[in-house]
């Protein structure tokens, strides 16, 4: 399955069906990340029920240093 | 106590988390600053380098109130989106509205800042707009319902200190919500002057993170802000043109 993650095309295994499993795949499920799926911001609690389809646009952001 | 919306803070220093030499120095600087509010930015994550540590993982987030900013936004719409992303972390409901209108001076766009603040207040955020030192703009932001007003002392990261103390004092005088002097602070004395003017707090980043010894500077800022606040509360003496002796004139043994 091809996803657009943070503006880049990324090929992920077809076994990844939800946002939760996508975060696990990249090893970032325990980190503070915020996910936007097709321009809809997801609450953390809904990551496991947010299903992914081919060509979905995903933004994964986090907190970085700033003033 | 510094009260912002529903929150109360002992420290009047709000500390930025950008541009420290390393996490160890940063962690110690944060500790000695005794700040309770840390600002952050929201950026795309490098998912292919997920093992890279993040400063948030280095601190006890329960101990701090996180104040994400909307830095990078050029329009109200972008700022609102960034704020919503930050809030979806479930870690914070305060937001520093920062809509930059000019890349050279990094001065805030007043019109977009107003729009973004209005929208975010409707969405239930605790809104702290970074604004210019325009007195009427500060008034409008307060009337709109902003929980604090954060006028700049001078351009972000410039270290020029307080270039318009008169405007800042007008803003402080008229405000019924906390006024936090944000941006441009270079030295501890700059922070003290802001506090002596009656500011409720100071937000700074580069003055500490860019100092030769950030830990020492963090301590200095902590003390400077406290000194300025105490001085403000104590009430200064009026300035006079000529001297007034501190020692008594009576009882002198020389005639």
From TrEMBL, chain A:
Q: Which Pfam families match?
A: ThiS
The name under which this protein is listed is Sulfur carrier protein
Q: Which SUPFAM superfamilies match?
A: MoaD/ThiS (SSF54285)
UniProtKB/TrEMBL annotation, chain B:
Picking any one GO biological process from the record gives:
thiamine diphosphate biosynthetic process
Native organism is Oceanobacillus limi
Report keywords, A-Z: Cytoplasm, Schiff base, Thiamine biosynthesis, Transferase
Reply yes or no: does the keyword Transferase apply.
Answer: yes
- Give a GO cellular-component term: cytoplasm
Q: Which reaction does it catalyse?
A: [ThiS sulfur-carrier protein]-C-terminal-Gly-aminoethanethioate + 2-iminoacetate + 1-deoxy-D-xylulose 5-phosphate = [ThiS sulfur-carrier protein]-C-terminal Gly-Gly + 2-[(2R,5Z)-2-carboxy-4-methylthiazol-5(2H)-ylidene]ethyl phosphate + 2 H2O + H(+)
Member of which family? Belongs to the ThiG family.
- Top-rank taxon of the source lineage equals Bacteria
Residues the record lists as binding 1-deoxy-D-xylulose 5-phosphate: 157, 183-184, 205-206
Q: What class of enzyme is it?
A: transferase
Q: What is this protein called?
A: Thiazole synthase
The entry's function note states:
Catalyzes the rearrangement of 1-deoxy-D-xylulose 5-phosphate (DXP) to produce the thiazole phosphate moiety of thiamine. Sulfur is provided by the thiocarboxylate moiety of the carrier protein ThiS. In vitro, sulfur can be provided by H(2)S.
What Gene Ontology molecular-function terms does this entry list? thiazole synthase activity
């Amino acid at each position: 399955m091809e996803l657009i993650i943070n503006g880049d095309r990324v090929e992920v295994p077809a076994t990844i069906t939800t946002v939760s499993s996508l975060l696990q795949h990249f090893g970032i499920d325990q980190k503070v990340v915020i996910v936007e799926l097709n321009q809809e911001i997801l609450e953390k609690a809904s990551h496991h029920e947010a299903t992914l389809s081919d060509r979905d646009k995903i933004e994964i952001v986090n907190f970085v240093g700033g003033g | 106590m510094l009260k912002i919306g529903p929150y109360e803070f002992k420290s009047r220093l709000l500390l930025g988390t950008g541009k420290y030499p390393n996490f160890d120095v940063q962690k110690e600087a944060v500790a000695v600053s005794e700040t309770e509010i840390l600002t952050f930015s929201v950026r795309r994550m490098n998912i292919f380098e997920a093992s890279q540590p993040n400063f948030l993982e280095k601190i006890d987030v329960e101990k701090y109130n996180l104040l994400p900013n909307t830095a990078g936004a050029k329009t109200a719409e972008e700022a609102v989106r960034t704020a919503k992303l930050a809030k979806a972390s479930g870690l914070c409901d305060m937001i520093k509205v920062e809509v930059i209108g000019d890349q050279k001076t990094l001065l805030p766009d007043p019109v977009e800042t107003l729009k973004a603040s209005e929208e975010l207040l409707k969405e239930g955020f605790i809104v702290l707009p970074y604004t210019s030192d325009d007195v009427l703009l500060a008034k409008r932001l307060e009337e709109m319902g902003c929980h604090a007003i954060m006028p700049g002392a001078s351009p972000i990261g410039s270290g020029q200190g307080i270039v318009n103390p008169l405007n800042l004092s007008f803003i402080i005088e008229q405000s019924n919500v906390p006024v936090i002097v944000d941006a441009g602070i270079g030295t501890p004395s700059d922070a003290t002057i802001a506090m002596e003017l009656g500011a409720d707090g100071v937000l700074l980043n580069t003055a500490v993170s860019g100092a030769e010894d950030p830990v020492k500077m963090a301590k200095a800022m902590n003390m400077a802000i406290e000194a300025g606040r105490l001085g403000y509360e104590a009430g200064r003496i009026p300035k006079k043109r000529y001297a007034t002796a501190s020692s008594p004139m009576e009882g002198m043994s020389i005639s």
